[in-house]
Write a structure and sequence with these properties.
The complex is a heterotrimer. By secondary structure, chain A is mainly α. Chain A has one domain (5-312): ABC transporter involved in vitamin B12 uptake, BtuC (Orthogonal Bundle), CATH 1.10.3470. In chain A, 75% of the residues lie in helices and 3% in strands. Chain A has a two-stranded antiparallel sheet with strand order 1-4. In chain A, helix 3 (43-57) runs antiparallel to helix 11 and helix 13 (265-285) runs antiparallel to helix 14. By secondary structure, chain B is α/β, with parallel strands linked by helices. Chain B has 2 domains: 5-227, P-loop containing nucleotide triphosphate hydrolases (Rossmann fold, 3-Layer(aba) Sandwich), CATH 3.40.50; 243-493, 3-Layer(aba) Sandwich (Rossmann fold). Chain B contains 17 helices and 22 strands. Chain B has helices at residues 43-50, 73-79, 96-101, 114-126, 143-157, 173-188, 200-206, 229-237, 294-301, 323-328, 338-342, 349-361, 369-382, 399-411, 429-444, 456-462, 485-493, and strands spanning 5-14, 17-27, 32-36, 58-63, 66-68, 81-84, 107-108, 111-112, 161-165, 192-196, 209-214, 217-223, 258-267, 271-279, 282-287, 309-314, 316-318, 331-334, 417-421, 448-452, 465-470, 473-479. In chain B, a hairpin with a 3-residue loop joins strand 13 (258-267) and strand 14 (271-279). By secondary structure, chain C is mainly alpha-helical. The longest helix of chain C has 27 residues, at 210-236. In chain C, strand 4 (162-163) and strand 5 (166-167) form a beta hairpin. In chain C, helix 4 (74-90) runs parallel beside helix 7. Chain C has 16 helices and 6 strands. Chain C is 73% helix and 5% strand. Classes of the chains: A mainly alpha, B alpha/beta, C mainly alpha. Chains in contact: A-B, A-C, B-C. Chains A and C meet through helix 6, helix 12 and helix 14 of A and helix 6, helix 7, helix 13 and helix 15 of C.
Chain lengths: 319, 500, 323
């Protein structure tokens, strides 16, 4: 089997076993209603994780996404609730700001030759700080578009509902997979993660690709921020704290190599679902406490880091 | 016939080091041109100038009669000059087809046309006699296949000149044959192929002409048909000195008692098992071309790599799993690549000198500042290390002084056995002589030394015994009057299978 | 002696003085220190007191970064140590047992990180991510999800007490600074750690055991994080698994970077990192006392990182050379 498929297969198998075991215990888990909620509840995380997949595939990391979600939420809330701007216009403006922010980080990573982790750390402080400066309090959003979107759904057989934001996440995953596997940009991202020196020698436009990667990640984080504000009907500067860790976790558990070059957008989807399953299981169980989520995710993370170490050791030894 | 690519009077200076000087080279369509020379001879500098990675400080590059100045390898590639390096410069995690097409993928409506890419890749590789699953990850194939893919990419994008930089270094015999088959096909297509290797057999098997560089200068370019193996080795290793009268030998091994015995020590894929005993007060020279296993032998002896056969004893049996154990037993090692394995660039001269002794003493028996100054001062004086002061970072020193610092580091632990891998490479003439003098005086002090060098006249001058490495095996041991440049050259050049 | 004075004048100390003077301009009472109830009070003391936890983290982080590593888990380890200390005293243990237990927890986390980095050879940023993610869950498991408050006077004394007029936290940080500095500079540890950070391959050739040194620095970092965790818990009289030490790993890394230790490993200075921690805290306090909303802290911190990155970048060094 293709080496990079092994962690993905492991994720899929673990998910299936976990889901089967959980479903065996709680029959309620097997319903389109649970599935629909699954998608809606994890929408903002999933959208963020798609962007993070690209960053990690290229061998980088983006610590700023949680802060960008928070910032976008506040920004959108201020535009709509304080300035009276139409939500759709506000969305476009927010995405543009997020994109510019990501592009600036990508440019800094490329030209200042600093590890992405430090640059995006500064980005995290900046975005979180800017959001807090605009408003330290939660700003409620009351607008008919918000009411409409949060009510919009498609009915599934069995009484489940696919909400608009749940569907949006699925669409982003499909789009992300297309970009990763079917475009030049996608190939360039993998090439950068595989061997940046070779990639440059082979004519990959390193500067442009790096900027685009972080732009994509920030834009998707911005979109996630909008989704989060739709979900909570408010913008709050301290929302989505730590989401970067969840997103990184979902990407790694989804079988993407943290050092870059190997992985799939589809794997990230399973990763997000697996993390959602852990959460849902704990809620269903009722006796287990919420902190088990973090511990289980930490254990999964550790298992996958170890698994990847084993699968890719031969290659590392040869290099 | 017109040469397709010419280098005229090429020169390149790095800092104070003249890496290349007045080198001329002509490449004709349909020829395989071998480029030979030891490390530091200027091969890679020349290649980097021809392929646009460096810009020459002197001279010009002429492509099909027109002077060219490439800004980077991509430009040279677009103009027709492709390069394949020893470390395959592709992306291992992408598929074979993607590697062939990266940067030039066929597309449709903004999306990649994967089918066209796979069909194209299959077609291209078929012309090289390679039928593989082009959708599979490149890294899952052998290095030989990766090399051929790299060649296919370079030829597809360039098509006039192909530079192969040590493509065979990590291939086995069958794989080399396969690669040569590809090279012959390209030659028939009219490409000029530059082939860099340090395996003589391969030069004679594939090359039409050879150009030999030494110390950044052109030694000669000749048709292979008029040359013997000995001629080629002589051009690479010795000036004319090699065949001048050999200097007086150090009095035939009046060495002391045996100090260290290596019996049947070897490692699969690295060095075949060898036997070697070192005595107090003797210098054993190691001769052999690059890739002959000479460095690998030293790494086994110092515990850098662990041997999988044989036994080592120094008074008592020794198991070496790391250099730490070798140091504890009284060994020191000056590695070939000073920058990577030797110096701590940011640390001071003083710290670089005391570090091995300090490591040996352990965490808590710290050398005081005064002791450090004393040790650094003593050895800096003994070896004539020229540094403005001992607190300056060692990276600011010249290569020769850096080498002396590493030597001082080992002398500070008062070693019994010292291994020097190419101690005089990349060092100016003055420092060169001093290091040779130091080797002699250490021998007189009763140390055992193992010195690897590609400077034959030098090996002859200080060795009381010489072992010759070829094809990853020890093939000869010369003593006393046998030690002469001619004998060494013959042993190195001897055909595989023939008696040394 | 003259040389000593010169060594005190560094970009870091100038920056600290500048921040302090700036604070003084914004808030004229900044330098006033008064003696009340047997201890010192004032903004300056506050800077020292509030800066102590990050300073303690930075001490451990410096050694890790010197080996070319990074420890992202220290914030979570703080939460674990605080949780252990708080639940132990609440469970009836004396402070003499509770605090060592908390420190052992920190050492264990450090050992875990060290094994992943040194033995399994996993990139430090990835290896320490595991505890960063799972650590707060473990802390909550220990506290069973509550904020465990305690009234043990001895434990509270560690966080809020004073000795000879100075806050305990400051004394603990100072003691740790002095002991650690002496330890790395009077033994060979400092030199050997720097050697491993500068060139791991050359270190191997010189007979240095990088493995045990790497284990040591991560264990030590876990130990420092545990001390900081106990202090923070003692300060608020309780263990808050969710918020104790949140994002402090980033402040600690920033302090080390401001202190001039390169993220690429090598030369390090623990006192300078502590100075870096004080600069960060002086800014935090300055923003507070001068009436700006505390949210500006983050923006100022981001500004500092950006400034340092630009100053250290190859682009800037090329510009300087030309000038």
């Amino acid at each position: 089997m293709n080496r990079s498929l092994r962690p993905l297969a492991a994720t899929a198998i673990i998910f299936l076993i976990a889901y089967a075991a959980a479903a065996f215990q709680f029959h309620g888990l097997v319903s389109t209603r649970v599935l629909g909620n699954f998608l809606t509840d994890n929408a903002f995380l999933g959208i963020t994780a798609v962007g993070m997949t690209f960053v990690i595939l290229s061998g980088g990391i983006d610590l700023s996404v949680g802060a960008v979600i928070g910032f976008t939420g506040v920004f959108v809330a201020v535009l709509i609730s304080w300035a009276g701007i139409h939500p759709l216009v506000a969305f476009v403006l927010a995405l543009a700001v997020a994109a510019a922010f990501g592009a600036a980080m990508g440019a800094a990573i490329h030209w200042l030759k600093v590890p992405s982790f430090i640059v995006t750390l500064a980005g995290m402080f900046l975005a979180r700080g800017a959001a807090s400066v605009i408003s330290a309090d939660s700003i409620p959003i009351n607008h008919e578009v918000y009411d409409w979107v949060s009510q919009a759904y498609w009915k599934m057989p069995g009484g489940g509902r696919i909400s608009l934001i749940g569907a949006l996440m699925v669409a982003i995953f499909v789009l992300g997979a297309l970009i990763a596997h079917r475009t030049r940009f996608g190939a360039n991202v993998y090439a950068l993660g595989g061997n940046p020196v070779s990639a440059e020698l082979m004519g990959v436009p390193v500067a442009r690709t790096t900027i685009l990667i972080y732009m994509l990640s920030s834009t998707l984080a911005g979109l996630a921020g909008i989704v989060f504000s739709l979900y909570t009907q408010a913008g709050y500067s301290l929302s989505a704290v730590g989401v970067e860790l969840d997103a990184i976790g979902a990407v790694v558990i989804g079988g993407t190599l943290l050092t870059g070059g190997y992985g799939f957008v589809a794997g990230t989807f399973i990763g997000v679902m697996l993390m959602g399953l852990v959460q849902t299981y704990i809620i269903f169980d009722g006796t287990l406490s919420s902190w088990w989520t973090k511990i289980v995710i930490g254990v999964l993370l550790f298992m996958f880091i170890l698994l990847q170490r084993l699968v890719f050791r031969a290659q590392a030894a040869r290099a | 016939m017109e040469p397709v690519l010419q280098g005229r009077g090429l020169g390149k200076v790095f800092g104070a080091h003249q890496a290349l000087q007045g080198v001329e080279i002509d490449l004709f369509p349909g020829e395989v041109h071998a480029l030979l020379g030891e490390n530091g001879a200027g091969k890679s500098t020349l290649i980097k100038i021809l392929t646009g990675a460096y810009q020459p400080d002197a001279g010009t590059v002429v492509l099909e009669g027109a002077e060219v100045a490439f800004r980077d390898p991509l430009q040279a590639q677009a103009a027709g000059i492709g390069t394949v390096y020893q470390e395959v410069n592709l992306v291992p995690n992408l598929s074979v087809a993607e590697n062939l097409y990266l940067g030039h993928q066929p597309g449709r409506w903004g999306f990649l046309n994967k089918r066209a890419m796979h069909d194209g890749a299959r077609e291209v590789l078929a012309t090289y006699g390679l039928e593989i699953d082009v959708r599979a990850e490149l890294g899952s194939f052998s290095v030989a296949v990766q090399q051929i893919v790299a060649i296919a990419r370079a030829v597809k994008l360039s098509g006039k000149v192909l530079v192969l930089d040590e493509p065979t270094a990590s291939l086995d015999r069958a794989e080399v044959e396969r690669l040569f088959d590809v090279v012959r096909r390209l030659k028939d297509r009219g490409l000029a192929v530059v082939f860099i290797t340090h395996f003589l057999d391969q030069v004679f098997a594939i090359a039409d002409r050879v150009t030999v560089l030494r110390n950044g200068k052109l030694v000669s370019t000749q048709a292979i048909s008029g040359l013997s193996r000995t001629d080629v080795v002589r051009m690479m290793l010795g000036k004319d000195v090699v065949f001048a009268h050999a200097p007086a030998m150090t009095e035939a091994a009046e060495a002391g008692p045996a100090l260290a015995t290596f019996a049947g020590v070897g490692k699969k894929g690295s060095v075949q098992p060898f036997d070697l005993t070192l005595h107090q007060g003797e210098v054993v020279g190691v001769a052999g071309l690059l890739g002959s296993g000479r460095t690998e032998m030293a790494r086994l002896m110092f515990g850098v790599d662990s041997a999988d056969t044989g036994s080592i004893s120094m008074g008592q049996p020794l198991t070496l799993r790391s250099p730490r154990q070798a140091v504890a037993a009284g060994m020191g090692f000056c590695p070939e690549d000073r920058k990577v394995d030797g110096i701590f660039g940011e640390l001071s001269v003083r710290e670089n000198i005391v570090i091995a002794l300090q490591a040996k003493l352990g965490w808590f028996k710290a050398l005081s500042r005064d002791e450090q100054d004393d040790i650094a001062g003593r050895f800096a004086e003994a070896l004539d290390i020229r540094a403005a002061n001992h607190d300056m970072p060692v990276r600011l020193l010249s290569g020769g002084n850096q080498q002396k610092v590493i030597l001082a580091r080992w002398l500070a632990i008062d070693p019994k056995l010292l291994i020097l891998d190419e101690p005089t490479r990349g060092i100016d003439v003055g420092a060169h002589a001093e290091i040779v003098r130091t080797i002699n005086s250490l021998r007189e002090d009763g140390l055992a030394l193992l010195v690897i060098s590609s400077e034959l006249d030098e090996v002859v001058a200080y060795s009381s015994r010489v072992v010759v490495m070829r094809d990853r095996a020890m093939v000869a041991e010369l003593k006393g009057a046998e030690i002469s440049p001619q004998v060494i050259v013959q042993a190195i050049a001897a055909q595989e299978g023939a008696a040394p | 002696m003259k040389l000593r004075v010169q060594r005190l004048i560094t970009p870091q100390s100038i920056a600290l003085v500048a921040v302090l003077v700036f604070n003084w301009v914004l808030f004229p009472g900044f330098f006033s220190v008064e003696w009340k109830d047997g201890r010192l009070f004032g903004s300056l003391i506050d800077v020292l007191n509030r800066g102590a936890p990050v300073a303690i983290l930075a001490i451990g982080m410096t050694a890790v970064i010197a080996t070319k590593g990074v420890d992202l888990s220290v914030g979570a380890v703080m939460a674990i140590a605080g949780a252990v200390a708080a639940t132990s005293v609440e469970g009836g243990l004396s402070v003499w047992a509770a605090v060592p237990l908390a420190l052992v927890a920190g050492l264990a986390c450090g050992l875990w990180n060290g094994v992943l980095v040194a033995v399994l050879d996993i990139q430090p940023i990835i290896a320490t991510l595991v505890i960063m993610v799972a650590g707060r869950g473990i802390a909550q498991l220990i506290t069973q999800g509550f904020i465990v408050t305690f009234t043990d006077p001895a434990l509270i004394y560690i966080g809020t007490g004073s000795f000879a007029g100075l806050p305990m936290t400051v004394l603990i940080a100072a003691a740790l600074l002095i002991v650690t500095t002496l330890l790395v500079r009077r033994t060979a540890l400092g030199l050997l750690i720097e050697a491993v950070g500068v060139n791991r391959s050359a270190a191997r050739f010189a007979g240095i055991s990088a493995l045990s040194l790497l284990l040591l620095v991560y264990v030590f970092s876990g130990f420092c994080a545990a001390i900081a965790g106990v202090i923070v818990a003692a300060d608020i009289h309780g263990a808050d698994a969710n918020n104790a030490g949140l994002w402090l790993e980033l402040d600690a890394i920033l302090a080390v970077v401001i202190g001039g230790t390169s993220l690429l490993g090598g030369r390090f200075s623990i006192p300078m990192s502590v100075l870096g921690a004080l600069i960060i805290q002086a800014m935090n306090t300055g923003i507070l006392v001068s009436g700006f909303p505390p949210e500006f802290n983050l923006i100022v911190k981001a500004g500092i990182i950006i400034a340092i990155l630009i100053l250290q970048s190859p682009v800037a060094s090329r510009l300087f050379k030309r000038a």
